[in-house]
Write a structure and sequence with these properties.
The chain has 12 helices and 9 strands. The protein has about 325 residues and is an alpha+beta fold. It folds into 2 domains: about 40 residues, no CATH class; about 210 residues, no CATH class. The strands form 3 sheets. It has a 5-stranded mixed beta sheet. Strand 5 and strand 6 form a beta hairpin. Helix 2 crosses helix 4 and helix 8 runs antiparallel to helix 11. It starts with a helix and ends in a 5-residue tail after the last helix.
């Protein structure tokens, strides 16, 4: 998409500044224009969002607002606790996956493909799902006079999801050190025709160049994929004693650019937390996040050793040379 087209699309999506936006910019002493609003960043954007939160959120609920797509217009305060909200999200995702594979199988058969996907059957809810949702709120920092609050950019996630993802990312980082690579061609979409001539799209395959170590890299990555379920079970067993606790992972970035993780240990904690009194409920059962960091470290080391047991890390000088030799295909 050209810059000219992007500008046209942007104007069509939101051609004018709203009265709310105009009011906030004027309060900040800025010119109330779309151009000024689009260029806000850093501390100014943080200040703008603080003002905005006071308008869009509800003071009695600490201005708490889920900002994830699909939840932004939802009345989260009607749910008795986080479990009720989580079950609704889980059921929706499971139904979508089931319907998605049914549709995929239908098209595979229509195109006459040899390999047909296995039908996915929705599973019953039996543990905290909560894969991660963005939220904003104005957290109370002082009590009594002044009612001072600070804007919080948060990520609400289950301990199972948080620990599992951190482990996979850490292992991938270790693999990348041993097998540095670049993509031989950009990631994109190609158009294909089915047997009836109808068009359908598919993401193009990506080829990794790893200085002659492509087969070894592929083997290692497949080994990691084969261990996904085993790692997930290991994580579940490691955190089961922390089901009733919460954890907060503070960002090390400046306040105006921070994102803190608000981690729910399990069903026991989720049952006793409501969006109406989120911060109070959350801090009543909080534990040091280092508890989870230890689990992440131990399981990362355990599975990295399993996956890279016969591979020695590449020396720094050799690594630099490999990265220099890697080039995109033209």
């Amino acid at each position: 998409m050209s810059k000219e087209t992007e500008e046209k699309v942007k104007k069509l999506r939101n051609p004018k500044i709203t009265e709310t936006q105009k009011s906030i910019l004027e309060k900040m002493g800025l010119k109330p224009s779309k151009k000024v609003l689009d260029k806000l960043k850093g501390k100014k954007l943080y200040k703008y969002n603080t003002h905005r939160q006071k308008i869009t959120g509800k003071k009695k609920y600490d201005y708490f607002e889920i900002t994830e797509i699909g939840h932004s217009d939802e009345n989260i305060f009607k749910f008795k606790n986080l479990i009720k909200w989580d079950i609704k999200n889980y059921d929706f995702q499971e139904k979508s996956r089931e319907e998605g594979t049914d549709e995929q199988i239908k098209w595979q058969k229509k195109r006459g493909e040899e390999e047909i996907s296995e039908r996915y059957l929705a599973k019953d809810y039996n543990k905290l799902y909560m894969p991660g949702d963005w939220f904003r709120a104005l957290e109370l920092t002082t009590f009594g006079r002044g009612d001072k609050r600070k804007l919080v950019y948060g990520h609400l996630e289950s301990a199972q999801s948080y620990v599992y993802i951190q482990i996979l990312e850490n292992i991938q980082d270790e693999i990348d050190k041993v097998y540095p690579y670049i993509y031989a061609r950009p990631y994109g979409v190609s158009m294909f025709e089915d047997i009836e001539g109808s068009k359908y799209s598919r993401m193009t395959d990506t080829e990794k160049r790893a200085a002659g170590k492509e087969k070894e890299l592929e083997k290692v990555e497949k080994k990691l994929q084969s261990l996904w379920e085993k790692i997930e079970v290991d994580v579940e067993l490691s955190i089961e004693d922390y089901s009733g606790y919460t954890f907060r992972k503070y960002s090390d970035k400046p306040l105006y650019d921070h994102l803190d993780f608000f981690i729910i240990g399990g069903l026991d904690a989720a049952e006793n937390i409501t969006f109406k009194t989120f911060f109070r409920d959350f801090y009543e059962r909080i534990q040091p996040v280092e508890v989870l960091d230890i689990i992440i470290k131990e399981l990362t080391e355990k599975y990295t050793k399993v996956i890279l047991d016969t591979n020695e890390p590449i020396q720094t000088k050799k690594l630099k040379k490999i990265m220099k030799d890697l080039k995109f295909d033209k």
